[in-house]
Specification:
Length: about 80
């Protein structure tokens, strides 16, 4: 009976390379998701800023008209 010695490192190296590949894929996916989320957050922040400035201008104009009308035409 002939017994052969199989080097266990062959399978381990193959498994380690597969795991490394999976880790790389997960890291790449997470980085892409982070980048997309960061871009979306910047867009939402910019939109909120623009809406708040627009509303501030409208409210300031309304209040100044009310104050001006009250000064010129007291009740």
């Amino acid at each position: 009976i002939e017994t052969t010695f199989r080097d266990p490192s062959d399978e381990l190296v193959r498994d380690a390379r597969a795991v490394h590949s999976l880790i790389y894929d997960i890291r790449t996916s997470a980085t892409q998701q982070f980048t997309t989320t960061r871009s979306t957050t910047h867009i939402v922040n910019l939109a909120a800023l623009l809406v708040s400035v627009f509303l501030s201008v409208i409210i300031a104009g309304y209040l100044s008209d009310k104050i001006t009308n009250h000064i010129h035409h007291p009740s």
